[in-house]
Amino acid sequence: xxxxxxxxxxxxxxxxxxxxxxxxxxxxxxxxxxxxxxxxxxxxxxxxxxxxxxxxxxxxxxxxxxxxxxxxxxxxxxxxxxxxxxxxxxxxxxxxxxxxxxxxxxxxxxxxxxxxxxxxxxxxxxxxxxxxxxxxxxxxxxxxxxxxxxxxxxxxxxxxxxxxxxxxxxxxxxxxxxxxxxxxxxxxxxxxxxxxxxxxxxxxxxxxxxxxxxxxxxxxxxxxxxxxxxxxxxxxxxxxxxxxxxxxxxxxxxxxxxxxxxxxxxxxxxxxxxxxxxxxxxxxxxxxxxxxxxxxxxxxxxxxxxxxxxxxxxxxxxxxxxxxxxxxxxxxxxxxxxxxxxxxxxxxxxxxxxxxxxxxxxxxxxxxxxxxxxxxxxxxxxxxxxxxxxxxxxxxxxxxxxxxxxxxxxxxxxxxxxxxxxxxxxxxxxxxxxxxxxxxxxxxxxxxxxxxxx
Length: 454
Known about the structure:
Layout: E1 2-6, E2 9-13, H1 23-31, E3 43-45, H2 51-54, H3 57-62, E4 68-71, H4 73-101, H5 111-118, E5 121-123, E6 131-132, E7 137-143, E8 151-158, E9 163-168, E10 192-198, H6 212-228, E11 233-236, H7 242-254, E12 263-267, H8 269-281, H9 284-294, E13 299-302, H10 305-313, E14 318-322, H11 332-339, E15 346-350, H12 360-365, E16 372-375, E17 378-381, E18 385-389, H13 398-405, E19 410-416, H14 420-436, E20 442-445
Helix pairs in contact: 4-5, 4-8, 8-9, 13-14
């Protein structure tokens, strides 16, 4: 959440929900009084529709915002499904907190607030085109491979005396992406007075030599091995983007093989909704591939709980894609409860699995030190095989961040959306690269409530 004041205009860059393993810590953070008046905001710009970037929009509406929420068309479609799902989650978390602490915790917002929010979304869908919103504010999108519909934003602010330009990357994907349905992230060449760049993978210790081709081959061999020994493959995955990417990878591996009869179970109402919505938001070439994937006869889309329970208990070997990606909640827990016990089965993580024991995904991956895992307060033997495919992450890796951040045309680069260690590490390496590129702009690490003068 970045607040901008210029001339007589007030702008917000995204309005994300803080997600934390502690319901209470998250509730307190997400209930904090806004440091601006929502009813005085003119615009909210959204780079992409992940909940940590849009999850507080309904609260903003609830507290009086009546301006424009600006995003691309695919982001507008995905926002509906993701926010409705989030409304269910925040209501359930408020119920849990109320019971746990014996006091009333009001939900952050309701499903009704989400539907009101959708009425304030305005779609601007063309990249590299300058849109003029009013006498002060213009903007353009730049391409971003982070997920379907993702965009970088350049704000162009003019008060009649001076013009200021701000680049905001939102989360950025790879410069040479291996993900389907998205185009490569571009490095904007146009000048910006201030550039604000994400730094999620800013630690150079996270760099990997593995390629997507390596991970895909690893997955193919793993699937064939597990199916041969009559086990099942469980793929915890985020409902938006990651699940569709995994499903496409499976189709490209086995979709043309008539001898491949294994059921692929997509078990999550949200994932099913997003899979269906992909056909509506994808451009022609991308849509052609997705239509084949979506209609692949091996895929079973599971919406209802009764059907989900039946698949969990079905002993026939299968491949399961279910949410959530970090195994924090959702139907994936039932599959883990069942299949972690099975030495013939395998858990396949894609992307980041967490950095410590607070993540169930981390504990599963580190089975040597976590031989038993508690799921819903019940100990479960951690016997299944486990692999991790790091290249499926939707975030730009360290090398891409370094290349992107050191080739900008700007006066000042501000690092956001990363741990303190990640920001500081990336900052030092960027300074060196910027100098090598014969550029001289400053690099700053953001802090909460930090103010930058335009």
